[in-house]
Amino acid sequence: LYGPSSPDFTPPLSHKARVIRLITGYHKVRKGDAAEGYHQSLIDITPQRVLEELNALLLQEEV
Asked: N or C: the chain end with fewer CB closer than 10 Å?
C-alpha cells in the first residue's frame, strides 16, 4: 500500500499490483495535513477492500 499520489504519475512497479483509489485526479498533499499523518483517501480504504483485492491477486496467480 502506498499513496495518495496518482498511479498515472507514480504507478506501481510490479504487474502484481492493484490500485485502490477513492479519489480521482491529482491531489496535492503535504506531509502533516492529516491529524493521523495519513491522507484521508488512504484512511477511507477499508481493510475488507484491501483483502478483496489481495484475494483477487492470489487467485490470478493460481491460474
From this structure: C
